[in-house]
Fold this protein.
Amino acid sequence: MVDIYRDVGYFLERKSLRRDGRIKKLMFWLIVFIVSVIPVSGHTQSVALAEVDSLLEAKRHYRFAKEYDKNRMYEDAIVEYQKSLSFKADNPNVYYDLANLLYRLERYHEAQQQCFRCLELDSTFVVAHYLLALLWHKAANYDSAIVEFEKTIALDPSYIQIHRTLADLYRYKGWDEKALRQYLRTAEMDGGGSQEKNFQLFSHLGNLFANRGFVAEAISCYRHALIFKQDEQLLEKLARLQLKSRFYRGALDTYLTLAEGNATNSQIFLKIADISLKLGATDKAIFALKRLADLRPTDPEPLCHLAEIYLQQGKFETAKTYIDRGLAVDQDNPHLYVLKGEYHKKKGAKEIALICFKKALSDSTWGKYAQQMIWEIQPPLTEEEQLRREFFSRGKRKVQ
């Protein structure tokens, strides 16, 4: 019988008949008529009438609340939500809508209480779990936020943005394995995300793989992230990882990319030079060393390496230019004197070469090499020759 009363109430409400006082009277007498026709006890009739009236009042105030909310009359909306609940306190939708409004008004504690009441009535109310998770996150209660986010995606796995947030929280908590799985799941679900979001996603994945020692996977993720955004810090991470794994050609390409946007960063050009020399990539080494020589005008090392390369290529005069530039910066540099000695040796000026090599003999690094070069020009005496010279030397002293 209660259903009959409810149906009548709904019908009248849909037709908006209750706006008029006369129609209210008509509705009242219609309900009285139905009650008089259907034989029920007086107590049951009064309970039923009260139930119908409460339900209608609750719906009316709920409708008003939604309209006020829509028109940004927020305080009036709150009052109407509360009136609706005073007539019918078991509607989870009203609690959620009130919580949502309070959240938007930044009245977080009140919003949280309404979420709790909503979920007490319906523990599967997925958006209430999501809103509660956001509230816990706002309060920096990340453990509780994680619980609510997990409940949300358990009820509705299609919440892509939650998967990403949950992965970030796992990473923040240091739960790398869970974060890694969650980021991978996010990558599978959200292939069409924004450029920035995809960049962040694959960057985090790369970091997690790198932390767990999965170098190839980390490199792959970093490269994928760089498709969405060229980032200097990530390029440096990628280059270091490639060097660590002895993937020198990949590291060289990465440092060359870095150099395009960092024409004044000497460290980048130093890396390019070192790797290029290791790989025998002479052209790239020359490019980096020349840039280093310009960036570090008081550093003789780039000039030494350039002179070395040009001597090996047979470009002796070009090599001499860099040797002279180096000695102008550091006139006692043993490496430059060795190179100058080699230049004169190749040009056939052996006496000058000997003078240059001798200037490097006292150096711990280049002394042995300088001695070898001297012996190539002036081979050391054999023991027999040394004895013969000593014999004739003693004879000369006796004659004198």
